[in-house]
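Reference record
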Amino acid sequence: MSDGRMAEVLKGAAGSAAGAAAVEVYKDGRSLLTSAGSRIANVIDLKKNYKKLMQEARKLWELRDGIETEISKHRINQVTREWIVKVEVITREVGELETKYNDEKKNPRRLVRVWQHSNLSKDMADKHGQVQILLEEGKLKRGVLVAELPEPVMKIHAPKIEDNPSLCKVVEDVVSFLKDEQIRIIGIWGTMGTGKTTIMQNLNNHQEIAKMFDIVIWATLSKECSLEKFQGAIMQRLKLNVESTVSIEENAWTISEELKGKKCLILVDEIFDFIDLNKVMGIQDNLKSKVVLASRLRDICKEMEADELINVKPLLWSME
């Protein structure tokens, strides 16, 4: 190869290498500009990302508090407990980001912190996504838990009493007594066939009572009914797990915890003997709960510490 030809080849190679290098420099420069632009955009979005994160976090906290307030602790299943733990963890993480944000706000003109601003903004955007996921999970869990709660009122068949003034009067008197904060236990007594059960059934379905109480519980006893069976009937109505291995005291605590803070009316029909309501359901610990009991014997109502007694006279008509 001649010297001239060799010079041309070397010159061409050098040109190609320089061109390739220039392309790489261009790519690197464009990459740097893109990265810088992305970081600047993050800095600009810092305040927006902070607001979005805190808004969703507050919704998450309200949902968690709502679940813990509305749903009794013993109703919250393991999966939901694990979700609550995750909320507690992310709450701490959000708090740390909020602290960093407030610290950055105190020094807004320190441009040397532009990369820190960018990282903080990105962290907030990422955390916002995590909060949203937990929020959606929590909504589903709350829906399931609420669906498992007992109905406020379970209506039962009740003979009509509109044509019987005496029975209507008893129902009206009971409703009036229930409005009195000083009256917690009402005793209805009378001989067999006087309409006590009909009165109790109509109280259970009464629209005004449904507005007065969060839940109405109906229970019918008998001579053979034990304390355990009565307690089991209440727990079944409340949709609580009834375990034969659990003691009466433990079940009473569970019932009491379930009714804590709620306005509950317990209707107990056909009481033949004294029943310790505190032992059955911890009634003394639930000041908003009230009881209406029906018995053939006045002494039973008195022994169960009824604040008001209503005597039902024999009926002169046949009920439907």
